[in-house]
Write a structure and sequence with these properties.
single chain, mainly alpha, Serine Threonine Protein Phosphatase 5, Tetratricopeptide repeat, rod-shaped
């Protein structure tokens, strides 16, 4: 009887254990089903996102390519503009250099023309003076060293030497006259032509000294001539400041001189340079 009871108990335990196992398996299956459902849903979402990404990739690639191309075009345009600006700057420098060179050449030509014109005027004056001197008598002033007639003769010879370009011979003649009789009517002229000899030899510093001595003769009619030549001498040695001062002095003190327009023009040209 006891054995039957034990068998009954064991049967009940086995049945209960099986029931629990079945219940656990059923619960496990339900949980697994839920998990699988969630996994499937996530897979669906992943597939959807993957599909969207695949669809977007060409657009993104196109956009990236477009940006790169736009950047390349922008860089290309920038480089082109920089090159053009540099080219324009180089052309401007070239034009400025050419302009400066042309101005320099024009100024040099102008200076040479002024020198030539001055030479023509000077020679014309010398011939006029010689003609007048030959046809007029010099005042017979008493001199302790040289007679007026001899003074006149030496003066004409020295002036002829100057006209022929024999400057050393002319310097000897005029300097001898200046020292022999400073009171002669032709003394201021002798001093002026002595200065002209040095000017013609391009010894401008010595010419300035000799031209300035012309002003020591009272009543001289060579003062405006000498003033012009002093300005031209300073201009020739490159002393623009002094040249301006001397040309301005001619304008200020000799407004009626025939050289007034030349002095004004010289001041204008020196101011431009």
């Amino acid at each position: 009887m006891i054995n039957n009871f034990i068998k009954s108990i064991l049967s009940i335990i086995i049945v209960f254990s099986f029931t629990i196992t079945v219940a656990q398996d059923s619960a496990t299956k339900r949980e697994m089903k839920k998990i699988n459902t969630k996994i499937n849903q996530q897979n669906i979402r992943v597939d959807s996102l993957d599909t969207q990404i695949r669809l977007l990739l060409p657009e993104l690639q196109n956009a990236l390519n477009a940006n790169l191309k736009a950047k390349e075009q922008t860089d290309s345009v920038a480089i082109l503009l920089i090159n053009r600006i540099n080219m324009m700057q180089n052309k401007m420098r070239l034009i400025e250099d050419r302009t400066a060179y042309i101005d320099s050449v024009n100024f040099e030509i102008l200076a040479q023309l002024v020198m030539i014109e001055n030479k023509i005027v000077t020679l014309t004056n010398s011939f006029t003076e010689m003609y007048t001197l030959k046809n007029n008598r010099v005042n017979d002033k008493v001199s302790s060293k040289i007679s007026p007639t001899e003074y006149k003769r030496i003066y004409i010879e020295a002036l002829s030497s100057y006209q022929n370009g024999e400057y050393e011979k002319a310097v000897t003649g005029f300097s001898g006259l200046v020292m022999s009789d400073p009171g002669s009517d032709l003394a201021d002229n002798s001093q002026y032509w002595l200065a002209e000899c040095f000017y013609s030899q391009k010894d401008f510093k010595r010419a300035i000294i000799e031209f300035e001595k012309v002003f020591t003769y009272a009543g001289t009619d060579k003062d405006d001539d000498a003033q012009l030549k002093i300005g031209l001498s300073y201009q020739s040695i490159g002393n623009v400041t002094k040249a301006k001062e001397e040309f301005q002095r001619l304008v200020d003190y000799f407004p009626g001189s025939e050289y007034f327009p030349k002095a004004k023009e010289a001041l204008k040209q020196l101011s431009l340079n």
